[in-house]
TrEMBL record:
<dbReference type="InterPro" id="IPR021149">
    <property type="entry name" value="OligosaccharylTrfase_OST3/OST6"/>
</dbReference>
<keyword id="KW-0732">Signal</keyword>
<feature type="transmembrane region" description="Helical">
    <location>
        <begin position="153"/>
        <end position="172"/>
    </location>
</feature>
<keyword id="KW-1015">Disulfide bond</keyword>
<keyword id="KW-0256">Endoplasmic reticulum</keyword>
<keyword id="KW-0813">Transport</keyword>
<dbReference type="Pfam" id="PF04756">
    <property type="entry name" value="OST3_OST6"/>
</dbReference>
<protein>
    <submittedName>
        <fullName>TUSC3 protein</fullName>
    </submittedName>
</protein>
<dbReference type="GO" id="GO:0008250">
    <property type="term" value="C:oligosaccharyltransferase complex"/>
</dbReference>
<comment type="similarity">
    <text>Belongs to the OST3/OST6 family.</text>
</comment>
<keyword id="KW-0472">Membrane</keyword>
<dbReference type="InterPro" id="IPR036249">
    <property type="entry name" value="Thioredoxin-like_sf"/>
</dbReference>
<dbReference type="GO" id="GO:0018279">
    <property type="term" value="P:protein N-linked glycosylation via asparagine"/>
</dbReference>
<keyword id="KW-0460">Magnesium</keyword>
<feature type="transmembrane region" description="Helical">
    <location>
        <begin position="184"/>
        <end position="203"/>
    </location>
</feature>
<dbReference type="GO" id="GO:0015693">
    <property type="term" value="P:magnesium ion transport"/>
</dbReference>
<comment type="pathway">
    <text>Protein modification; protein glycosylation.</text>
</comment>
Amino acid sequence: QNLLAEKVEQLMEWSSRRSVIRMNGDKFRRFVKAPPRNYSVIVMFTALQPQRQCSVCRQANEEYQVLANSWRYSSAFSNKLFFTIVDYDEGADVFQQLNMNSAPTFMHFPPKGKPKRADTFDLQRIGFAAEQLAKWIADRTDVHIRVFRPPNYSGTIALALLVSLVGGLLYLRRNNLEFIYNKTGWAMAALCVVFAMTSGQMWNHIRGPPYAHKNPQNGQVSYIHGSSQAQFVAESHIILLLS
């Protein structure tokens, strides 16, 4: 009991400083793998160092940070769930121990027993959006996390600039607005929208899949997903160009 209390106290102290606890091999084996443990641990296995050139890892890490911050500042926050991260360059031995050859990967380590198949998040099929991760965590731990994202005004600013640009063009050509009734122009615009939707842009927006997949072991990059149930963002761009 004393050992368990010490582990929980240490994890809570780390969590008070940072929502996602960084772990090397020793910390992982002590706080995640070794009993006793009465808490769940979510681990993101990743490769964030610049030399790894894993853009997907950086994107997934941003979503992971959003989720961990949402939990850390939630009124339901407790010592029953902790968010951690193991970087390949800080814990290569952990990757080898788990026979892991891809990143990023999310795993849930339950309070008792070993992780089951469902305790590995299906990133390739579902994507890595914070909301999808929160749903998976709720299924595995019964801990429900409401995702709070920091304000992002880039979309509002872009829309305001677009409206201003269109309004300015209409004002400058106020004496000659025949182009508005140009059927060819509207047809081209409609085709662009159709091609964008056909390529899977809406699916990407909803699912948040990675742009591509890079194997950290051999560096091979895959732009086409091997399953018919999922896709990479790169596939949409390829289909859009072919269209």
